[in-house]
Automatic annotation (TrEMBL):
Alphabetically ordered keywords of this record: Chaperone, Cytoplasm, DNA replication, Metal-binding, Repeat, Stress response, Zinc, Zinc-finger
Self-association state and partner proteins as the record states: Homodimer.
Name the record gives this protein: Chaperone protein DnaJ
Domain J: 4-68
Gene for this chain: dnaJ
């Protein structure tokens, strides 16, 4: 008699593949032997897994929908859910958990891995100057990678020969062996050493790639790097990574930015910092200086009268561009007041006169030691919290 596979999963007869998968995952999480050691749960887990295996296979599902049972007779007369047909049940569960589910293989045996595999992602690092990070650049890189074999176009075979079923594993892609342990005999399986899990071998392999379907080569790659990137960021180039075994579709290539330190500017996110030296007299009287910027050329910076050492003058919008945005960071000019180290007699005279003037101004007389909330400490605090 046909089993109620839909009822076991708790779905209607019109359930979509998505609904089937969702229902199965939910039950498998409750019933999986790793989380639920209860014997009844294990039995139900086997039943539920079998139901999912049947219903996720369009051919088997069709048999069920016509009133049949695709598992009848498959277990050598036993016909039960614990029959030999479900040796691969656990593997299928894990596939379902990790989203790699495709139609289950006939008879419930684990499917061979297949000769064609997706290629690996690769990573290259490239040095960029701060200016290149600011404006964006197309970097021409040479990468050592795996490309499709042009002789066999990935087939791995020579001429018109075809792959054949692996004799060692009979096409299963894995071999099983019985090991004795103190718990008794344990059946273990491992990838077939002859076909390395593919289930098939190539008797007459391609002369160029030896059957792998791909060859190592150096490739020139033009990597477009957008403006605003920073150290450690990765630019992803889809399908520019390694071609997979058997000509499987290429992985992605990641280009990691290694930002070189700049002589003048220190970067902090989108903001830039630099030091601007201002002569003592200019700081006192105020002036305008021209400083270099990363993207806008020489730019005027106003120094107000009475500027103190360590003050920061901000050029809004003259920092780094924000990635994928038209916004810009700021340029913070840290003002370094320069006291002349050598004075000629005329300058010394003038400063002495200036000093004489200042002493008469009572308001200017103050203690040489300032309090904590003024002077150096306050400026340090302001520069740490001001941004
Ligand atoms: Zn080849
Ligand atoms: Zn094999």
């Amino acid at each position: 008699m046909a089993r109620d596979y839909y009822g076991l999963l708790g779905v209607g007869r019109d359930a979509s593949d998505q609904e089937l998968k969702r229902a199965y995952r939910k039950l498998a999480r409750e019933l999986h032997p790793d989380v639920n050691p209860d014997e009844a749960a294990q039995t139900r887990f086997k039943e539920v897994s079998a139901a999912y295996e049947v219903l996720s296979d369009p051919e088997k599902r069709r048999i069920v929908d016509m009133g049949g049972d695709p598992l009848d007779g498959g277990g050598g007369g036993a016909g039960g859910f614990s029959g030999a047909g479900f040796g691969g049940g656990l593997g299928d569960v894990f596939e379902a958990f990790f989203g790699g589910m495709s139609g289950a293989a006939g008879g419930g045996a684990r499917k061979p891995r297949g000769r064609v595999q997706p290629g690996a992602d690769s990573l290259v690092r490239t040095r960029l100057s701060l200016a290149e990070c600011a404006v964006g650049v197309t970097k021409h890189l040479t990468v050592d990678t795996a490309i499709l074999c042009d002789l066999c176009q990935g087939a791995g075979t020579n001429g018109n020969s075809s792959p054949v079923r692996c004799e060692t594993c009979g096409g299963a892609g894995e071999v099983q062996s019985v090991q004795r342990s103190f718990l008794g005999q344990v059946l273990t399986s491992r990838p077939c050493p002859t076909c390395r899990g593919a289930g098939e071998t190539i008797p007459d392999p391609c002369h160029k790639c030896g059957g792998d379907g791909r060859v190592r080569a150096r490739r020139e790659i033009a990597a477009p790097v957008p403006a605003g990137v920073a150290n450690g960021m990765r630019v992803r180039l889809a399908a520019q990574g390694e071609v997979g075994p058997g000509g499987g579709h290429a992985g992605d290539l990641y280009v990691e930015i290694v930002e070189q330190p700049h002589d003048v500017f220190v970067r902090d996110g989108d903001d830039l910092h630099c030091t601007v030296r201002v002569p003592m007299v200019d700081a006192a009287l105020g002036t305008t200086v021209v400083i270099d910027t990363i993207m806008d050329g020489p730019t005027e910076l106003t120094i107000g009268p009475g500027t103190q050492p360590g003050e920061i003058s901000v050029l809004r919008g003259h920092g780094m561009p924000r990635l994928r945005s038209s916004a810009r960071g700021d340029l913070m000019a840290h003002l370094d007041i320069v006291v002349p180290s050598r004075l000629d007699s005329k300058q010394t005279d003038l400063l002495r006169k200036y000093k004489g003037l200042r002493v008469k101004d009572k308001a200017e007389v103050m203690s040489a030691q300032s309090e904590h909330n003024s002077g150096l400490f306050a400026r340090l605090r302001a520069s740490f919290s001001g941004r």
